[in-house]
UniProtKB/TrEMBL annotation:
Alphabetical keyword list: Acetylation, Cytoplasm, Exosome, Nucleus, RNA-binding, rRNA processing
UniProt organism field: Thryothorus ludovicianus (Carolina wren)
Encoding gene (name): Exosc8
Protein name: Exosome complex component RRP43
Presence of the UniProt keyword rRNA processing in the record: yes
UniProt GO molecular function: mRNA 3'-UTR AU-rich region binding
Organism taxonomic ancestry: Eukaryota, Metazoa, Chordata, Craniata, Vertebrata
Length: 275
């Protein structure tokens, strides 16, 4: 495993399994904790912690008020940010965001935009005067591959936990008034779920790759779908090309994975609802 890691992996892949005992199409154990389960970030308006095997990601959403942009007077803002601190893996260093963190932040921004999970018009309080800004901080606590799947899941779970207070503008003073006693859930239009694959030897596809598998792979691809089976995004940062048939296979598996994640998140949210 140390001297010839790729050959070591190939021996397992020939038998349609992986060194950790999973089949090629098998995901690691996935868990999610939402909101009140997370005492650590009580200051957030919505929060979630997702574990995908050893990969652990936490997402906190903070809502603030701001004036909308001049050219988007009826829209609010969503600002995602992915952090990969040095504590999550030896490969990352302290300091400004590295290339991988920046790429992940851009990926999350594209998913929000392409899936229309939140329509920015819904964040507008008063046209041209006041809107909500959602700061979505996604922090990796333990990195063992497949950051994108865990990040999208944590973001969705945290957003579903957000409750926004009622805000009105006093016509006499022109100032905003916040009613903390009356809160409404954030309107989430779509529920995107990411499913990532690693490509081995240009032909073999394995789902939910670990960090070691990502390093040995000849390429990776991430498929994002919504609850209607609609394709929201295909993220393929270089590497081995995929045939149309292979890509279709990835999309089909991603749609199945979406149903599993949706069932999991609904179950957790139901358990948090007061009876």
């Amino acid at each position: 495993r140390t001297v010839e890691p790729l050959e070591y992996y190939r021996r397992f892949l020939k038998e349609n399994c992986r060194p950790d005992g999973r089949e090629l199409g098998e995901f690691r154990t996935t868990t999610v904790n939402i909101g009140k389960c997370l005492c650590s970030i009580t200051t957030a308006d919505g929060s979630a912690l997702v574990k995908l095997g050893n990969t652990t990601v936490i997402c906190g959403v903070k809502a603030e008020l701001a004036a909308p942009a001049v050219d988007s007077a009826n829209k609010g803002y969503i600002v995602p940010n992915v952090e990969l601190p040095s504590l999550c893996a030896e490969r990352f260093r302290s300091g400004p965001p590295g290339e991988e963190a920046q790429a992940a932040s851009q990926f999350i921004a594209d998913v929000i935009e392409n899936s229309q999970m939140i329509v920015k018009e819904d964040l507008c309080i008063a046209n041209g005067k006041l809107a909500w800004v959602l700061y979505c901080d996604i922090i990796c606590l333990d990195y063992d591959g497949n950051l994108l799947d865990a990040s999208v899941f944590a973001l969705l779970a945290a957003l579903k936990n957000v409750q926004l207070p009622l805000v009105t503008i006093n016509e006499e003073t022109g100032l905003s008034e916040v009613n903390l006693k009356q809160k409404n859930p954030l309107i989430i239009r779509k529920h995107p779920v990411a499913t990532s694959f690693a490509v081995f030897d240009d032909t073999l596809l394995i789902v939910d790759p670990t960090a070691e598998e990502e390093d040995l792979a000849t390429g990776t691809v991430t498929i994002v779908t919504d609850e209607e089976g609609r394709l929201c995004s295909v993220h393929k940062p270089g590497g081995s090309p995929l045939t149309g048939a292979k890509l279709q296979d990835c999309i089909t598996r991603a749609i199945t994975r979406h149903k599993e994640i949706k069932k999991l998140i609904d179950k957790v949210i139901k358990s948090l609802t007061p009876k």
